[in-house]
Amino acid sequence: MILKAVILAAGxxxxxxxxxxxxxxxxxxxxxxxxxxxxIRALAACEVKELLVVVGYQKERxxxxxxxxxxxxxxxxxxxxDELLGTAHALSKVRDHINEDFLVLNxxxxxxxxxxxxxxxxxxxxxxxxxxxxxxxDYGVLTVEGGKVTRIVEKPGRPCAGILNTGAYRFxxxxxxxxxxxxxxxxxxYELTQTISQxxxxxxDIRAMMTDxxxxxxxxxxxxxxxxxxxxxxxxxxxxxxxEDGAVLKGPVVMGENSLIRAGSYIVGPVxxxxxxxxxxxxxVLPATSIGDSVRVGSGSEIRxxxxxxxxxxxxxxxxxxxxxxxxxxxxxxxxxxxxxxTVDVEEGCHHVxxxxxxxxxxxxxxxAFMNPGTIIGTDCKIGSCTALRGRVERGTRVI
Length: 400
Fold this sequence. Notes:
Blueprint: E1 4-9, E2 29-30, E3 33-34, H1 35-45, E4 50-55, H2 59-66, E5 75-80, H3 87-92, E6 102-106, E7 109-111, H4 113-121, E8 126-135, E9 141-145, E10 148-153, E11 160-171, H5 175-179, H6 192-201, E12 206-210, E13 215-217, H7 224-233, E14 238-239, E15 242-243, E16 248-250, E17 253-255, E18 260-261, E19 266-268, E20 271-273, E21 278-279, E22 284-285, E23 289-291, E24 296-297, E25 302-304, E26 307-308, E27 313-314, E28 319-321, E29 324-325, E30 330-331, E31 336-337, E32 340-346, E33 349-355, E34 357-359, E35 364-365, E36 370-371, E37 375-377, E38 382-383, E39 388-389, E40 392-393, E41 398-399
Parallel strand pairs: 1-4, 1-6, 4-5, 8-12, 14-17, 15-18, 16-19, 17-20, 18-21, 19-22, 20-23, 21-24, 22-25, 23-26, 24-27, 25-28, 26-29, 27-30, 28-31, 29-34, 31-36, 34-37, 35-38, 36-39, 37-40, 38-41
Antiparallel strand pairs: 2-3, 6-11, 7-13, 8-11, 9-10, 9-11, 32-33
């Protein structure tokens, strides 16, 4: 019986900037809950109650949110990784707390109870949870023969289909001896995948457990939309606020306490609306949209396949498509975030993707601003009226 799990939550999530300028990636909301909350709830449902959470970047925000874990039915012990030197280094920090088989999960992945049960029940001692999927080349790919992992190809960098390493593992305490032998990478870090490759090369038996459970990641900020869509589909419909006469709710809708959907609005699930929201009148919210707590959406606006984080105000006549909007933003009337194909430059290269915009926290716009597909706006920007935006707008910029 597996009783302990380690959650790796120390990193920033640089490729999700600018959303991670104010929070770590594990705290980015999908279906109105931080990534890591979904992980903790899934572990609790599997009776894994003793959690070791390795924190570093923005650790206070994580610790203040989850506290001791009791309200989630678990007991959390925090371990600090002062220097962000990779996942192997992070895991080595919990050595004094582990004396039995245990799970290792990334706090910035989304997985469900079934995936964790598959990992716990897999035969063998050292297990990698895997998933068969087409992908863009940004994940580690496993070569598996007779259930045994013979090779890990880390991020092949080209579109392909294969057996993905989900980043979820089951280990025996023997792993800590291997961690101490892990060589430093070209990036100056110690990575868990290098440790596992070292074990494979040394003849250790590493097994892959294929799961049909839910699992996804968000490598880049725009990937939050697909993670949000999956998380929203796993929620049970629940309407706790007020729906005025003349408003229509179709499909699975979750709506929090003290929220109001005004007359003439049309909501098609899966949609999640938080607490203390004011939506409408005559607002359209289409599938795979999450709206955080204390959000105001003005009359005649339309939101589709998007995330709107808590405390944001959206004016009248706005159109928001395939976008991610941070917390405490203020959009004036007739703002348009248009979806389409775009080329986006993120650190290591260009990515050809289709989405609307990514807008970080505390961004204010004047009326009739227009954001072209692929626009990325940093924290604390101020955008003037009748402005057309394209590309990247750096943190704290004023655009007039």
